[in-house]
Amino acid sequence: MAAAIGILASAPGAGAQSAVGSQDTLNLPTELTMLTNPDPNVRRATAVVNGHVITGTDLDHRVALLVDANQSEISPEEMQRVRAQVLRNLIDETLQIQAAEAEEIAIDPAEVNQTYARLAAQSNRRLEEMDAYLISIGSSPVSLKRQIQGELAWQRLLRRKVSMFVNVSAEEVNELMERLNASKGTDEYWVWEIFLSSTPQNAAAVEANAQKIVEQLRQGGSFIAYARQFSEASTAAVGGDLGWIHLPQLKDPQLETVVGQMQPGQLVGPIAISGGYWIVFLREKRQVLTADPRDATLSLKQIQVTFDPAADATVNQAKLDTFIAGVQNMRGCGSADEIAATLDANVVTNDQINARALPEQLQNMVLNMQVGEVTPPFGSVQEGVRVLMLCGRDDPQVESGPNFDELMAEIEDERVNKAAQRYLRDLRNDAYIEYN
Question: Is the separation of the CB atoms in 297 and 192 below 8 Å?
């Protein structure tokens, strides 16, 4: 579907025809004369949702969570947009909690507190430190716990009202497994996502909002924070983390092409897809169903010699020549410490270092070495000259890939996510919302 949208958008006049069609449906005039303030965000600071009041304090506390996670200053214009979006999120959250309560789904405060404690532990804070920290940034424990309650209530409601009606056949799963096995040796990707739903009527506004989010992310904004506050995908609760995926799991040729061309650390979007806009960040990539050599655990000896910067250059050069010759005469790791002592060199041993932890320039070099070999010398007189000797290597296990049950769960999650978007849209349509 997304590929078809892309083809239509590239056709001459297709965009104009779509816009005219949506306007004809509503019979809107081509030129508008506004009789009141055209910017609703100026006055809509709070809201009453089906009788539940969202106060200005509620909004301030939730915005503070996003501001704290942002690594760059947010401009006044951007802050106004952020506050408007967070208010919409609070409205949706309220609708989700109310819908769960209507189904007699109650979230035990103990469960909320348990999740809150886990978040505190993940940030290396005790509970009292977490409370103080949230207050110090202008938020509150109550605000974060309310968000946790909303996420838990919505997940539980979806399991009761949506998940039980989602069916995935064994044939679908087996077909996907065949595609994955056929792609063995190709790349798989660790993807983070933000999804914003749209309709033909509000697509332009949603796309503009998505562009603003991308701008903030490029300026150092926290992807996890923006995903939790803005994304409408089921991955919002985990900061947009899709985990390791294979391109066929995207089940969209357009998205497969986009992600397949990305490099680790790259941010792309917004991308127009069926039902909205997608922002994607590629955290890392590796080989499908193939062990990545960079996951090998290495045993290394670092042999380093230091110099006196005040000494004559010829003296330091002679010391360097002696060091290089001595290193070349080493016979494996067993002789390294003894010979290093004669060279006035220091030896540091690390038996549990992951190849990925090495500077990229050294990774391929060390991974192509045999046990007992050393790298070429590197460094300078000022910082010292060193070599790395490979003393051992434990290669990673070959990844078996997702099994039948895992793939079925992924397909079910995708369908539940789409149904959840429709469900939330219905809740909005039926809601009584007053703005102050």
Answer: no
**CA 312 and chain centroid, separation:** 53
Report how far residue 421's alpha carbon sits from residue 148's, in angstroms, rounded to the nearest whole number: 19
- Outline where DSSP puts E strands in 151-213: 187-197
Q: How far, rounded to the nearest angstrom, does the alpha carbon of residue 128 sit from its chain's CA centroid?
A: 28
Provide the CATH number for the domain formed by 293-394 in this structure.
3.10.50
Kindly report, residue by residue over 214-267, the tens digit of the pLDDT.
Answer: 888 888 888 888 888 788 887 887 788 888 887 877 877 888 888 888 888 889
CATH code: domain 184-290+411-433 is: 3.10.50.40
CA angle 128, 132, 137 (to 5 degrees): 150
Across the chain, what does the average pLDDT equal?
Answer: 78
In this prediction, residue 183 has a pLDDT band, given cuts at 50, 70 and 90, of: low
Strand order in the sheet with 346-354: 346-354, 297-305, 384-394, 378-380
- Helical packing angle, 141-161 and 56-69, nearest 10°: 90
